[in-house]
Structure formats: structure tokens, C-alpha cells
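Below is just one:
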Amino acid sequence: MQTGPLKRPNANELFTLIDDLWDPIYWNKVDSVIYRQLEETDDISKKLSSSIVQSPLSSDNLLYATHP
């Protein structure tokens, strides 16, 4: 991992890194890692929402906290 101000990526490198994350989402490339992670996150959120609404005292509830 890079540390220190002189080893940080420049604006062009940051653009490339962000673009590499954005392109698969924009083009719906379902075989990409980021797209699968987004789908998994959506599924977890849906399961959490439905389990809380249906049974707030159930032991099946997911025990994790999302960042606000």
C-alpha cells in the first residue's frame, strides 16, 4: 500500500481508478466484481428490511450496522 504524499495517485490515476469502478456499473456488466458486490449489498439490505418489518425479535435478523 502506498503511503506518504509523494506516493499518492495523481488526478489522472484517480480518474482511471474511479472510471474502472464506474464503467461496469454504467454498462451493467454483471460479470464484474463491483456489480456483484452491489447486487449482494442490495440483497442484504432487502433481507434486513424485510426481517425487521416481519419480526423485529426474530433470531434470524442480520446483525450488522451500515454506515450512515
